[in-house]
Design a protein that fits this description.
Helix content: over 70%
Domain ABC3 transporter permease C-terminal: 35-131
Structural class: mainly alpha
Number of helices: 4
Largest sheet: 2 strands, antiparallel
Radius of gyration: 25 Å
Organism: Clostridium perfringens (strain SM101 / Type A)
Low-confidence stretches: none
Shape: elongated
Pfam families: FtsX
Distance between the termini: 81 Å
Main location: membrane
Transmembrane segments: 27-49, 83-105, 117-138
Mean pLDDT: 85
Order of helices and strands: EEHHHH
């Protein structure tokens, strides 16, 4: 019990503490997911712009490859490999970090008798991978069409 300056007793019930904890947890989860989405969109946009600007810078290299007899299929495979590496490495690092973070957060939440967030985390991760894959596909097709149009 806690006496305030007027001599009243402030008491907290288990339900009130549980409700306050739920409210704080929801706020933190919302902010975390919101920031994650913002960082995902901004980082993929930067990656896409960097790759597309590199496409126009590499036109001479692809023309040289074409002159020595490399087929369009091989050039497309080279483009796919390059864009996959640029998009794949950050994705792998993020997934490893997320798996570790989810295990830590689940351990923390079990102290407060909270449910496991594994399923909701997987759904969120799946949505983010789909968005990331959309950026990857758009970047790949843009890079490929830039090179193809320059080689004509």
């Amino acid at each position: 019990m806690d006496l305030d300056k007027y001599g009243f007793v402030n008491g907290y019930t288990r339900e009130r503490i549980y409700e306050d904890n739920n409210g704080m947890t929801n706020i933190v989860l919302f902010i975390g997911i919101y920031l994650g989405i913002i960082f995902l969109i901004s980082s993929t946009a930067v990656l896409a712009l960097q790759q597309l600007s590199e496409a126009s810078d590499s036109i001479d290299r692809y023309k040289s490859l074409r002159r020595i007899g490399v087929s369009q299929k091989m050039i497309n495979k080279s483009i796919f490999t390059q864009v996959s590496i640029y998009f794949g490495l950050p994705l792998v690092v993020a997934l490893v970090h997320s798996v570790v973070a989810i295990k830590v957060v689940n351990g923390f939440l079990t102290m407060f008798n909270r449910p496991d967030i594994g399923v909701s985390s997987l759904v969120t991760a799946l949505i983010m991978v789909i968005v990331y894959g959309g950026y990857f596909y758009t970047t790949y097709t843009g890079y490929k069409s830039t090179v193809k149009n320059a080689l004509k």
